[in-house]
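Tutorial, part two.
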Amino acid sequence: GITVRLILHYSRPGTPIIVLLTVGLSWALTYSTCLVVPLDLLLDDDIDKHSLEVAWNGIYWASFVLTWFLIPILQGYYDAGEFTFQSRLKSSVRSNLIFYGVCCALFVGFVIYVTVTKGMAGRDILGFLMCLSNVWGLTFAILLLGYGLVEVPRRFWHKGNRLLMLSSLQYQASQIHEEMEQCKDDLVQTLRLLDYLDPKLDRRHPCRKYFDIVRDNMPVEEDFGIEDLNSVRPIDQLGIVSEIKAAKEIHMQHMIRLNYHVKHLTYVLWLVDAQWKDTIDQAIKTEQYLIERREAKLTSTAPADTFWAKLRWRTKVHISPYFNRSSAIIFTLSSCLIVWCELTLLSPTDLSPFSYLVDSLRPSVSAVEWIALLPVIYMFVCASFALFLFDYFDFT
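Running the prediction step on this input gives:
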């Protein structure tokens, strides 16, 4: 259910089914570990432990293949500017081979350097390689979790102050508006470039059919508030615009670069437009709540007729801020407990409150499951919050 809601919220219209299925599978495998961890604490039978080991191995290797092979290939394929299936797949494989080749060369050089300087033997090298294989995942998880454990309670605390939230949303809207204006400038330049190329590529030109494909994929300028291209001021030209206008003859590589540019521009325009609409919608609702709460203090009545309408209104206007502040306090205590457990992990004395609760409630299976499940879910939420907040992992 969580995976489906995330896909519906974050996917843009026209996303290929294979991308939705791949992303959905990778998220489902990740979140399924929340359900497997409590079972790992409870199962004592050898048969059950074997089944659990099979489940862990399946989740690990499926995630491994998706992370390092399938998703990079798909991402490179759909980002490529080529026009045929074979050429796009070839471009994706080539770019991934270059990336992994450079990484492997650096990695092998580093291992050789450490082996020579430290005088490690065969077993030492194997252990060192096993250690390095976990460094990336653990370091990345620690960074995300460290940020999320602080930012999630902080975000809920700020949501309890609607006036502060309104100021924050107004600031975000101004930043997004500047980015949107830059995207509109890029869109105008690209549209003018297409108008420039149209008469130069007649029907007999070998690049004409690819030019028509690029033009058909262009976003419609009216959808972004651009009525007339001539009304937009001249600006510094994009690199692709200058390159094509300076070329004496249009070649296939120009069409590939132009197609890649249009794909990226379409994605960025959709992303910025979605962020703009979401931010404006939140700002309007927040301002409306502030107005209604101020008017309610003056009239002491709720602007609703039915009982359930009054209840919803009072919940949104009056109860929601206190609920967010209370949630922030609970999440802050949870973050402190998790950090404390991590700091005392290597202590010879068991100082973990969760460990005491699990040991004391072990006869009750359901209680142990909930005690183990809730902290894991909270850590997943914090890490996922940080991951979705960053812009370095977009699957365009």
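The CA atoms of residues 200 and 375 lie 63 Å apart. In part three we will examine how such features are distributed along the chain.
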